[in-house]
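Course assignment 3, question 2. Fill in each field.
Student: A.L.
Task: Predict the tertiary structure for the chain below.
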Amino acid sequence: MSFNDPAALAVLESHGIAPEAFEALTSRDHDRFLKLRQATLMTWEQAFMADHGVRPPVSSQPAPAPLDSDVADDSDRGWDGPEDGALQP
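Answer field:
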């Protein structure tokens, strides 16, 4: 894949991969790639939030959203299902 190909360029850029990030990726500089892509995605997120009247977080450092959780905690929602959280048919 190359940034000389307009179709490839469109796909990469639509996925938040700018030319500099693609260069880092192809040179196997994964830390740099991730930092560059993260910066692009954060810029997009801030623009989206501004367009929708959402106040951005105070910090520009990535952090888990306060409402997101990888651990099921249904105690505050009145969950009355099995202890392991498995859904029954």
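Instructor remarks: Residues 6-60 form one domain. The two ends are 46 Å apart (CA to CA).
Grade: pending
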